[in-house]
Every structure is written in structure tokens, then in C-alpha cells.
Amino acid sequence: MRLFYASDIHGSDRCFKKFLNAGKFYSADAILVGGDITGKAIVPLVETAPGEVRATFLGSEHVLGSAEEIAALEQRIADTGYYSHRCGPDEEAALRDDPDALHALFVRRIVERMERWMELADQRLSGADGMPCFMNAGNDDPPEVDAVIDAAARVEFLEGRVVRLPNGIEVASCGYANKTPWNCPRDVEEPELARRLDSVAGAVEDPSWAMFNFHCPPYDSQIDQGPRLGEDFQLRQTAGGIEMHAVGSTACREVIERDQPLMGLHGHLHESRGTVKIGRTVCVNPGSEYTEGILRGALIDVHDRKRKVKNCVLTTG
Amino acid sequence: MSTSESVGGPGDAPAASTTSGGLFLRRSSGLVREFGGKDVFVFNTIGYALGLVLGIIPLLMAGAVPEANVLLTVALGTVLTVANAMTYAYLSAAMPRSGGEYVYLGRVVHPAAGFTANWGFQWSQLLGLGLYASFTVNFGIAVAFLTLGNVLDSAGLVSAGENVSGDWWTFGLGTAMIVSVLVVLSMGPRVVRRVLNVLFIPAIIGSFVTLLVLLTTTRSEFVSRFNTFMADRADGQTYQSILSAADKAGYVEKASTVGALLLAVPIGYYIYIGFTYSTYIGGEVKEPARTQPRMIAATLAFAAVMYLLCLWRFYDIVGQDFINSVIYLNDNAKGGSGLPVDPVLNFFTGIMTGSTILNVLMAISFFLWNFLLLFVIAMVCTRNLFAWSVDRVAPDALTKVDRRFHAPWVATLVIIACAEILLALFVFTTIFDNVSNYIVLFSIAFWMASFAAILLPTRRPEIFAAAPDYVQRRVGGVPVITLLGIGNLVLFSMVLYSAFKLPAFSGPTGSGAVLFVIGVYVSGVVWYLAAKAIQKRRGVDIELLYREIPPE
Lengths: 317, 552
Fold this sequence. Notes:
Chain A is an alpha/beta fold and 317 residues long.
């Protein structure tokens, strides 16, 4: 059985489209995206004059005069994982001063894109040979996306559940993470995370024939390296580069060390791409390059008869 | 959670907040300030090893093209280097990930091209570890002992300086350098960064002291001090007697020609190698589209100013004909020039001042520029081995990391073992005198990278279309990045031509050297094909791992 696994696509239209095609491309039997599927930013497209729109995107000022130009920029913004919002200067200023209105706008844009993605998944994955597709949320994703994914016909939502892959392997999922400095929608304290992980892991019938799809990687596992932050969220920089340290979850590590599943599927730390073994468990973090529209992933071959991981290779699609 | 996002607010901020960058940002992880412009500048300055290069320029120029005007060579080399700077800056802006040409060629041309270029670069760096370890002894420690012995009036130190360049001392101290790098690297990234952080400060201070000494010394002062030094502790030669001896031995001062200048221009580039190393950490740079080109340009500008100021004063004080005479005598006269060490810039600046403090600062600085470079090279080599292992073209075992110290101990041991073997071969045998052309070895990798820039718009139009607007600009319908790639190709074609014409610049140039370089790069192709075959037997197509998934 071959599984294609990706994570942290953060709203990138291009990455999601690639994800839907990854099954056929890599001859996989199933595809799974781990979490952090929603975008982080909205680019205001401000109508400064009749027929003229201005925007700042990736450090460049854009002045657009035609519908084609505006549509092209909107698609670039979507491919990068951001959302766009056409508005006048007054509305832009008002949004800057009104966090609640801005939050409502974010939720609207996130849900709209997720609904569009689910429609696309239903189209592309339909038919008798439709690829089994699994999706979970991560700590960055607002709760409003859960219902949208749950309602999709061809995509199975994973949060807090145990499902089976085509060869019978159980997948237990949790998108929550230990506290980050940003206090994200699904950040929880370690004891609460331990409770959630224990709950879903406890529902697994045979841990030795299971994958734990926990968005946050195990603590001090080398695939959980994040930047050490100083005051005002400034990276701690030295002459040798950014200072990194382990930011994974101790609860996650304890569950994996205790239950020793076949695999740990993780994400969360984009620059901490790699595979590592904890006991018999192969843990993987495929990393993320969503802003460039590149789909980082992992191709996992499981030897069904020997009940072990045959290959776990990282991909750059 | 990423290190490459933009700026955000604290954790207890409202559910959504705004920034001044024109974006609305919501509460989500990874919104931090990243590797900024100042950090890129420092990283690249360590990369080209300002103090080390400054020291050896007189040696390189006098040995390779003595008649070329040094300041014009550096100035013209700087102008041409702009093409190289902008090529890497544009590629880094289009593909802001860590890895340099390994990533650029792998994505634009073919994974095998990316690997082969990186393989050749890796071997040049391993060779560089051995080479620069010996430089640290011969040009760093030996010169420091001599110049300090001079100002402290210590015959013991001068004698140590004269003796330390021997084979066994070079091997022993070179090994100590390599092992100390191993020890620090094995203590984990935090210790490595602290060590580099601390050592960078005296290194750069010493370079400014060197400039200060050069700005405040006259030729007559230097000649007087040089003659005193030689009379007391060397073979009694004077400034004038060395010029006369060279004249008698057949040295003829030639007028600078355009041909000599063009032949020497690649040296004007060589002195900057390393100033684009921030492209190897591209994934960690804040707003790479703006930061990379600006800071790569700033690094180049700073280096050019330091080189031109120091060299202008150096040649004004010491005299190009004098340096050329020393090298000529060393190469052609039986007793050589009588100088106890090679005529590196720091040897002369050490003589120029009678201040112990300034001498100590300059000596420590020159030693540290060499020593820091060993760390940078070892770290680049480790990063390459990791990348190969992750991409399944090298064994998994290379990525083993010590859990306590977070140190990549297997990769580090492999690198140190290779460097130690190469150091021994370099010191005790003549193998590398005949076969190892260091400049050619890494220049081929940079030459190959040109094709990533030239072909980006046609082979990876989606990456080109997603790049910042300035990367997509065209001149006469031709993408600017393509033109820059062509400029880079021309520059490195010149470097390669000079490297084969000037053994004193690059190393041996005979058939053995050609076969060695071909062997290194062909073995890279063979290694890649073997890895591909092995992975295929395991059911993995490694080329598929790099290929872009069609989105539509």
C-alpha cells in the first residue's frame, strides 16, 4: 500500500490542486493532508479610482487597470495561500481598525475557499477509481472549516477520529498542538493535548498496525525544530544563523513511545522536514513550501505482509 | 509554523490584526521577524573570508599575472562579479529556498545536473578544508609568530614562525584545526553559533586595524622597519637588495597590458567567492525578494571598498615591483628571496607597526578568518550530505543526529575523515601538485548554475511567473534573468580559461589535473545513476520525487 502524505498547505490553491493529483502522479493508493490547511493573510485590492485597483503583494506595489489583470493577481494571491478582498479605501481603513470585522472577513474567505476546494475534490476524485482522500485541520485552522470538510462527498475528515486506509491500517488523528507564542485556534496546553491524544489513540484497535496523524511532532525529535524567539517575536540570530530549538509536544512523544505505532504523520514546523525513528515508529514531517506553490510531501510504502514501513521518501512536487 | 513568514503580533493579540506591510494578518503561527538584512550581510562576509583573501591577494597576483594592475583587476573583477551577484540574487528571489545551485539546477534543468554540480562543489569544499587548514598554519600561525616576535623582540617566537611551516607541523596543527572544528560541531548548533558569533568580532576588528595601519604608514617608514626586521632576524637582505637580486636573477618589470588585465580578471572575481552564501540559507531569509539582492549587493560593495582601500595603500607602501621581485626570487633563485614566510599582506602590515596590541589584533584576526572559514565550509558540507540523504541519493545513516547535542555526528565524522585524508595527501605527497585544480573544481559548479538562470523562464514558466515582478522583467523581449545567466556563463568561462592558463592562480593544469576534474564530475553522475538504480529496486523513482505535480 502506498500513501501520499502532505501537510501545511495553508490555503495555497496551487498546492491543493497538486495534492488532489498527487495520488495518480505517484501511483498512490490514498492521499492524506495533515493540517494547517487555511491561509494566514488577506491582500486588500483597493479601488483607488474608477477602473483602478492598487495592491501590495510580496513586497511589490501593483496598480491594475483591467479585469484580466485583477483576476490574474487574485489567482497569484490564491496560489500563494493568501486571500484577496476588493474594497474601497474607506473599507480598508475601517477593517484595519476593527479586529472583529476583520476576523469575520477571514472566516468568510476561509470558508469560501474550503467550499470551493471540496467541490473540486468531489469533481476530481469521483468515479469508480476515485482516490481515497483524507483531510484534517491543524492548530492554525479555525473551527469553521470542520463542517465544510465533513460535508464533502469524496473527502473524509479526520479530527478526533480513527479511520482505516485501503489496506486496513488505522489512522488516528489530532490537529491540536501544544501552545505556540501566537495562541492559535487549536493551541492547547500539554495536559489538554495529552488528553486528546490519549483519547484518539485509545480508540485504535492495534497500534502496531496504525498511523498516528498528530499535527504537532514529538518533542525533541529533530523534526520539531523551530526558531527561538526573543522579545517582540524577534528571531534569535547569531553569526551562524537562526537559533533553533525543539518545540514539539511532550505529550505526543509519550504517546508514540508508549504505543509504538507503525508511523507518526506530522507537520507544523515547515523548515523541520525529515524522518526519524522513535523506537519502531517512523515519524515524518514533510515540511512545507506552500508560498512558492510547491507541494512538499512524503511517499510512504507499507509492506502489508511484513507489516512494516518499506519506504518513506520525501517529495518536492 | 515557519521561519519564513512575515511580521505578526503577540499571542494575546485580537483574533485578527493588521500590519503596515499592506496585508491583513490573522492569528496564526510562524509570524515572526526572520533572518534580516544585517544577518545576511554578516553571513556573506564570513563566506568570502575578508581578512584571509586580503592576505593572499598579493601572493596570487604576483604569482599568476605579475604585470597586471592590481587595482584595475579588482575593479574590473568587481564589475563582472555583479553579473554573478545578480544571477544568484534573482534565482534566490525566484526560488527562495536553502541549497544554492543544488536547488536551482535540480528544479530548472534536471535533478542529476543539480546533484552533479553539488557533488563537484562538495569535493572542492572538502579539499578546501585541507587546503585552508594548511593556510591557517602557514599564513596565519607562522606569520603571527614572526610579526609578534618582531615587535616583542623574541627570538623564540621568530624561530617558531620560521619552523612552523614544516610538513609535520603543518599536518599536526592542521589536524588540530580540523579536530577542533569537529569537536565544536559535535557540540551542537547552539555551541557552533556561539563560537562563530564570538570569533567573528575580533576577526572583523582586526581587518579594520589592518586598514588603519595601512592608512597611517608611509613607504619610507615601511622600508626602514622592513630592513631592520631583515637585518636582525633573517638573512640580512634589505628592501633594495631584494629588488637588485631579482633584477640580477632576470626579473623584468613589464608594463601592464589589457591582455594581462583580462587574464587576471578572474582573480578579481575569486576574491569574492562566498559573498552569495546567503542563497544556501535562502529559506530562512526575511522578504528574500528584497533582502537577498540588496544585501548581496551591499556585501559586494563593502568588500570592494575594503579590498580597494587596503590594496591601494598596500601597493603604494610596499610596491608591486617589490612583491613581484620576492615571488620571482622564491620561484627562480636558489636561495629564494630570504623572506621567512610567503609575502602575504599581513606579514608586511605586521612589520609596519611597532605596536604589540595592533599586531596581536591583526594576528588573531588573520588566524580567525582562516579558522572561521573551516567552520563555514564544514557546515556547508554537512548541509549538502543531509540534502543528499533526504533526497535518497546518499545513505540514510548520514542523517543520524545525536539526541543530546543535536549534532549530525555521522555526517561530521565523514567530512572530517575526508578532510584529514586530503590534508595528509596535500602535505606529504605531490599528488595534488599534479592533479588538484581547486579553482576549476568549484567553478564548474558555478558555471553550471548559469543554465538555471538562462533556462528558468522557458523550462519552469510557473516558477518564473510566480517570481517577484523585477525577476520577470525583460529587455528587448529577453528576460533579464536569462541575460544575467549568460553574463554569469561568460564570467565563469573566463575563470575556467584563466584557471587552466595560470597554475599559480588555480593549481596544476596538465592532463592529470584535467582528468582529475573530469573524474570528480563523472563520478558524481555515476553516483547519481547508481543511487537511482538502487532506489528503483526498492520501488522508488528518485526523479519523480523532484518532478512537479501538474496542478490542473
